[in-house]
Amino acid sequence: MGTSHEATPYNHIKTTVLQRKSVSVRRRIQQLLNEEDLGEQRPSELLCRMKQLLSDSRLDANSPLRQELFFERLPQNVVLALAAAPDNLPLDKLAEQADRVAGYAAGGTVAAASSVPLSQLENRPFRLEQLIDGFAETVNALRPPSHPRRRDHDYRPRFWKEKTVTIELNGHEEVVKLDIVKSAYLATALPLCAFDC
């Protein structure tokens, strides 16, 4: 005794609509293999989507195949961090750990970009001027006196070339090789971190 379509029209229509509108298992597996990736979502959200796509499959929730499909879509640094997890850890727990690792990785990038205080960056031009003045004083001390020195004038750098610096003193210019300035500068008691800061 079969039920006729007239006896249960609602169930018949429901079944027909679901069959026509549902995505086949094969299509969902193809979508998982070819289209799904992490993108902007968290790893646990990716795993949830993967579970939706594989809901009708006969794969165990913690099968090695599901785990491998999940790991393939994670960033390399997250996979390396999860390698230390026990082998018997459920996939849901691995996804939670992946969320934490991905969160730390994103937070570390922002912290590294903002680790230099703004006051140090604002101070750089002034410190460069001080270094140039120090170079000028060193050159002044190394220059053999061709005429009596006047202490009321300093050497001032006018412009830099690749391996030389041009300095003006009392209206005339002098070109000095940077190798001489560099060795004289290193011999003085100026701090070694002058260029690193």
Explained architecture:
The structure is a single chain. The protein has 197 residues and is mainly alpha-helical. The chain has 2 domains: 9-113, no CATH class; 118-194, no CATH class. It is built from 8 helices and 3 strands; from the N terminus they run αααααααβββα. A 3-stranded antiparallel β-sheet has the order 1-2-3. A hairpin with a 3-residue loop joins strand 1 (156-160) and strand 2.
Shape, per Cα inertia axes: rod-shaped
- How many domains, in number, for the residues? 2
Largest sheet: 3 strands, antiparallel
Strand order of the largest sheet: 1-2-3
Low-confidence runs: 189-197
Helix content: 40-55%
User: Nearest-angstrom radius of gyration?
Assistant: 36 Å
Number of helices: 8
What structural class should be given to the helix and strand makeup? mainly alpha
Number of strands: 3
Please report which band the strand proportion falls in: under 5%, 5-15%, 15-25%, 25-35%, 35-45% or over 45%. 5-15%
Order of helices and strands: HHHHHHHEEEH
Distance between the termini: 90 Å
Q: Could you tell me the mean pLDDT?
A: 71
Write the topology of this structure.
Elements: H1 9-21, H2 25-34, H3 43-53, H4 64-72, H5 76-82, H6 91-113, H7 118-142, E1 156-160, E2 164-169, E3 172-177, H8 178-187
Antiparallel strand pairs: 1-2, 2-3
